[in-house]
Amino acid sequence: METLQDNGEFRLVLLGKTGSGKSSTGNMICGQDVFGSRVSESSVTKTCQYVETSRFGQTLSIVDTPGSFDTTVSNDVIMTEVARCLALSAPGPHVFIYVFNALSRFTKEEEDSIKQFVDHFGERVFDYMMVVFTRHDDLVRCTTSASKYISNVSTNFKTFLSNCKWRVCWFDNTLSGSNAGTQVRALLSEVEKMIKENGNISYFTNTLYTEAEKLMKKREEEIMLDQRKKENELSVLRIREEHIEKDRKLKAWRMRDIERRLLELDSQPKAAGDCVPRKSKLPSNRTSLSQRPSLERQVDFLHKELKKIKMTDLTLIEKQQEEIKKLKERLSKGYHRGNPRSMARKEVSKRNSSFSQMVSRGIIALGKHLLTGLLGLLLL
C-alpha angle 231/232/236, rounded to 5°? Predict the structure, then answer.
């Protein structure tokens, strides 16, 4: 079984109802605005959103889930989002973070949804759940301490917190800089503590997550094969490019050599009547009349070779270089050296991608009766 030390990754799934502050909490954890967040009575997050980032030397894979039932969306669409959540957090989340607005109350709707979720996935899910209370700044302004607040919550909410082993964190999502970092460190410390407590099974998994992991693993392997294939093709193109460049340099060197030779030949007298400066003596090795036809043929040959290099050889080389450039651009456009799993998750995060649709169909077909339980908690 995978442990945290195997890949140095925390997988977090944010749960909670509309207005609880899930997206702003996700932004706080990431240290930047990556999830849609604003004050609204309706859910800002309509689909599962996935972000991978690094904080304090730790890789974080965070899934922000939809926060409310949308009556304009069909149940099939909602279940598709749940399936995508499973795939994005496969092979399973290290922690389900239930985000709760400290100024609101724990409703019967929330209680029933959590019960349904546990009925389908088992009591063991509480081993991987913690609660983040938002609006801590408002509590401070009301001079209410965390312990006093918890002592006054409903009995049912206390039962829920007890089932989560009282793993709670307090967030002020208005903070920035080092103060924001401090509360994120506290959260990650709590998550790491939870992972160690869970021992060999460091993340939550079940039948649906196992199926999601199979699909993700298969896509991951396909991406790896595609990466190797394209890397090999690019390597071959680079070798061809090097050979062609060497050939171009040889042709350029040959052109300079021919031009130098033509200058030398051009400096020799070409006929008996060639003008010779006065008071100059003809060299004893002056080209004889019998040698002139051979000289002319040599000059003619060099001119033809020079023309061939310019008009044919270099043109062909330029054409080959242009073809290689286009091939490299085409291969590079679809080639990424990123982590295959991260790339597969990004494909799933695009709900209209073919892989995302395939994953959704596969998971929904396997566990329609189980998805309704997860549906309740994700879409409070």
Answer: 115
The rounded distance, in Å, linking the Cα atoms of 214 and 289 is 88
- Beta partners for residue 10, in sequence order: 60
Distance CA 88, CA 346 (A): 8
Q: At how many degrees (to 10) do helices 207-266 and 354-378 cross?
A: 150
Domain residue ranges in the chain: 4-205+350-378, 217-265+292-338
User: Do 185 and 58 touch, CB atoms closer than 8 A?
Assistant: no
4 is written with which tokens? 């945290």
Q: What is the 3-state secondary structure (H, E, C) of 56-120?
A: CCEEEEEEECCCCCCCCCCHHHHHHHHHHHHHHCCCCCCEEEEEEECCCCCCHHHHHHHHHHHHH
How far apart are the C-alpha atoms of 60 and 29, rounded to whole Å? 9
CA–CA separation, 4 and 13 (whole Å) = 16
- For domain 4-205+350-378, the CATH architecture is 3-Layer(aba) Sandwich (3.40)
In the DSSP assignment, the letter for residue 2 is: -
Is the model's pLDDT at 115 over the cut of 50? yes
Give the least confident one: 30-44, 153-167, 333-347: 30-44
Beta bridge partners of 168: 131
Q: Model confidence over 130-176: pLDDT tens digits?
A: 999 999 888 888 878 888 999 999 999 999 999 999 999 999 988 98
Distance CA 359, CA 50 (A): 15
Kindly give, in sequence order, each residue whose CB lies less than 8 Å from that of residue 87, ignoring residues fewer than 6 positions away: 212, 215, 216, 345, 348, 356, 359, 360, 363
| Greatest pairwise CA separation for the chain in angstroms | 125
361: which residues sit within 8 A by CB, 6+ positions away?
Answer: none
Cβ neighbours of 185 (radius 10 Å)? 14
- Can you give the pTM of this predicted structure? 0.76
Please choose, from the candidates 10, 21, 379, the residue with its C-alpha nearest in 3D space to the C-alpha of residue 170. Answer: 21
Position 27 confidence tier, pLDDT thresholds 50, 70, 90 = very high
